């Protein structure tokens, strides 16, 4: 049975592959699993029918037969556990790859999302401005410096490419265009290494096609 | 082999069980796995030796033989996967329990941590004040309302108690004392239900004993 995921009908990132369905698309491509996509509008995502599937009104969701999941981390882990290619066979290596997924989502991503959303959700608030943004950037730099030190000259976080790298690359590339990644050349190269993978490229093209179709820009 | 975790030598929460070692202690207690604790000072956590174990300089870590893990989510999941008691046997139920762990850590926790840290990290910043705190509280309420609606009258998030509930209860109880949980009586009851579990009580007593010993208050 081919799983179906949900994605934005019209992604606010204009096809840059920053919406969280990209993580799941990339995972599917790495393991060679075909998938279908159901596009949802912002209005639909907040309605009761969608919230029965995703209580927080977010994308992506994953449906396969009578299994329904949400949270991109959980979906990528589910795919990784049921197909070869995203987790090492060695149990300790497997545990460490999963650890890096959690580190990406719970330690590295929150300050990046906070910085990314500030111009939208905080604009107009009395505190919003350059000082606030610098504060948020410095908080990101703490994590980038720590991660950069750990990665060193390695290609991936723990030997071979894994779901941990997939998630970390996706989290770090939210900083594309900010100039911050370039302050840590090994992290910039790490993200480029992830983006160069054929599976990433296929996933990226698939989500971009959705944006171009929605915008009529073909 | 008995695993060893790290915890704060002197927890900033003064023994309220809010530090992330509590999640791991509770998981150990639920599955009946004895464990040892190595206490670390704030200074030690930022030194190179500790960062070799935990690149972000945080607690807890987990060591068992030659396996070393960090990130409370990854450690709890590792424990849950290797012992009975925290994940259902049914594969779909297992995937959903893991999904709730990710939802707790990646969707519900970030706005709570942001609000909790603001009085420490933002104090003295030009934007910090009542308005900023109200903004952060409202952001938390969005997630609480969504979770409250999903939980409804159920005892746990997906049938029997699981690692997903453990993590969600731990994340929600960061709000203890704020008055916000009480605005959603089913969530307040859910947290109380978690805290009433004998395994929670044993874990809580163990971390409190560390605080009392450190403070000389015995």
From TrEMBL, chains A, B:
Short name of any one Pfam family annotated for the protein: GST_C_2
Domain of life of the native organism: Bacteria
Keyword presence, Glycoprotein: no
Keyword annotations of the record: Transferase
CDD domains on file: GST_C_8, GST_N_GTT1_like
GO MF term list: glutathione transferase activity
Domain GST C-terminal: 90-218
Domain GST N-terminal: 8-87
Name the UniProt record assigns to this protein: Glutathione S-transferase
Organism: Aquamicrobium terrae
